[in-house]
Design goal:
Elements lengths: L1 E9 L4 H11 L3 E10 L4 E9 L3 H13 L5 E6 L5 E6 L4 H12 L5 E7 L5 H6 L4 E3 L7 H14 L4 E4 L8 H6 L4 E8 L8 H8 L3 E8 L9 E8 L6 H24 L3 E4 L2 E4 L2
Parallel strand pairs: 5-6, 5-8, 6-7, 8-9
Antiparallel strand pairs: 1-3, 1-4, 2-3, 9-10, 10-11, 12-13
């Protein structure tokens, strides 16, 4: 069986030796290994992919026993087990289309049991790809009930993480705190950072020379969560607001899909207020 072990703990001598010894103890063979020590927080993270004939049960027993003295956060997953993603959208389709396309090609190691939207606009797109679509309208009065329904579905469908693919609603603090490090959002990021309506028009008015996007984890602090992936494009004064929007869409879809891929491959570790992302 092919497995991925993700480990995070305080940095100290002997962790790598203990991991390799534990893998060997369950008859395993390491295929890939990446590690990093964050000097600021003294945090050690490691991602180890290995094969073993003893399966998940044997690997869990061996690694938990061999690494227990380091008091780590340790997660072991079969690579064939695809993380299950709940995708949430409103009416813009570019990020959703990219996720559905890559998932169909087998280039994105996820399952999408459900797509939820507060609008009906994208139903036909979702259903044409063979996925379930749920319309959950939201108002100030129904927000709490809607989030309660979403939380119920997350539990029932064994959802591993949530992807906000241009979902134009702000999640409550309570909802965010229920899934720390498991909600990914895509956000336009400019220099300066334009907020509110029509950010690309604001960027055009200010004559920006770079536009971009950031994929980040959602926290109770709006757009302040740990950043996973970013990209930019250089633009000039000749670009119209509509052209900036088109360029921005392209960046957003690529950045979000890359962040989802990193998450699905167990390559992201949250260390303090930032992330360590193995390529």
């Amino acid at each position: 069986m092919d497995l991925i072990a993700s480990l995070q703990c305080a940095d100290q001598p002997g962790i790598v030796h203990a991991m390799t010894s534990a893998v060997l103890a369950c008859g395993g063979n390491i295929i890939e290994n990446q590690q990093f020590t964050d000097q600021t927080t003294n945090t050690f993270v490691m991602r180890t992919r290995f094969e073993t004939a003893q399966g998940l049960e044997g690997a869990n027993k061996s690694l938990n026993e061999g690494l227990s003295k380091f008091n780590p956060s340790l997660h072991i997953r079969p690579t064939a087990q695809k993380p299950r993603a709940l995708v949430m959208v409103t009416k813009e389709s570019h990020c959703l289309r990219e996720l559905l396309y890559l998932e169909e090609l087998g280039e994105l190691n996820i399952e999408i049991p459900l797509v939820i939207s507060n609008r009906e606009d994208l139903r036909s797109l979702v259903e044409s790809h063979g996925h379930k679509f749920l319309y959950l309208p939201i108002t100030a009065d129904t927000k709490a009930n809607q989030e309660a329904e979403i939380s119920k579905l997350i539990a029932e469908l064994n959802i591993d993480f949530v992807v906000l693919a241009r979902y134009m609603q702000i999640l409550s603090e309570d909802f965010c705190e229920k899934m720390p490090g498991k909600i990914i959002n895509i956000h336009h990021s400019f220099l300066p950072g334009f907020k509110g309506a029509k950010p690309y028009h604001q960027a055009h008015d200010r004559g920006v020379k770079i536009i971009g996007a950031s994929a980040h984890f959602v926290t109770k602090d709006l757009d302040e969560g740990p950043i996973i992936e970013q990209d930019v494009a250089h633009v000039t004064h000749v670009a119209t607001p509509e052209e900036l929007i088109a360029i921005g869409r392209d960046i957003e879809r690529r950045v979000l899909s890359k962040a989802v891929k990193y998450f699905a491959d167990d390559k992201i570790f949250i260390v303090g207020k930032r992330t360590v992302v193995f390529s």
